[in-house]
Amino acid sequence: MEAAMTADRPRKATLFQVVRMLLWAFAGIRKREEHDKIEVKPVQVIIIGIIAGAVFVTTIVSVVLFITRG
């Protein structure tokens, strides 16, 4: 009985899985079955989300500056 309960329990997410999940969320695409397979802590989502958001904004600003000065 206990073995069946542990098999259904989601495993802890790796850094790559959290990054991948957030990038798909930025694109507006989400697979429910993949999300249910891993256990993600809110702190992981917040930190990776802030970093990914900062990289995105920096990239957009850099491209705009490059185009307007060129």
Work out the radius of gyration.
Answer: 17 Å
Q: How large is the share of residues in beta strands?
A: 5-15%
Give the proportion of residues in helices: over 70%
- How many strands? 2
Span of the ends, CA to CA:
67 Å
Identify the strand order in the major beta sheet. 1-2
How would the global form be characterised? elongated
Structural class: mainly alpha
Uncertain spans, ≥5 residues at pLDDT below 50? none
- How many helices? 4
- The SSE order reads HEHHEH
Average pLDDT, rounded to a whole number, is 83
The biggest beta sheet is recorded as: 2 strands, parallel
Count of all domains = 1
Which SSEs are present, and which pair or pack?
Elements: H1 2-8, E1 11-12, H2 15-27, H3 32-37, E2 38-39, H4 42-69
Please give a structural write-up.
- It is a single chain.
- The protein is mainly α.
- The protein has one domain (2-69).
- The protein is 77% helix and 6% strand.
- It has helices at residues 2-8, 15-27, 32-37, 42-69; strands at 11-12, 38-39.
- It has a two-stranded parallel sheet.
- Helix 2 (15-27) packs across helix 4.
- The longest helix is centred in the C-terminal third of the chain and has 28 residues, at 42-69.
- The radius of gyration is 17 Å and the shape is elongated.
List keywords for this structure.
2 strands, 77% helix, mainly alpha, 70 residues, 6% strand, single chain, two-stranded parallel ribbon
Summarize the structure in short.
The protein has helices at residues 2-8, 15-27, 32-37, 42-69; strands spanning 11-12, 38-39. It has one domain.
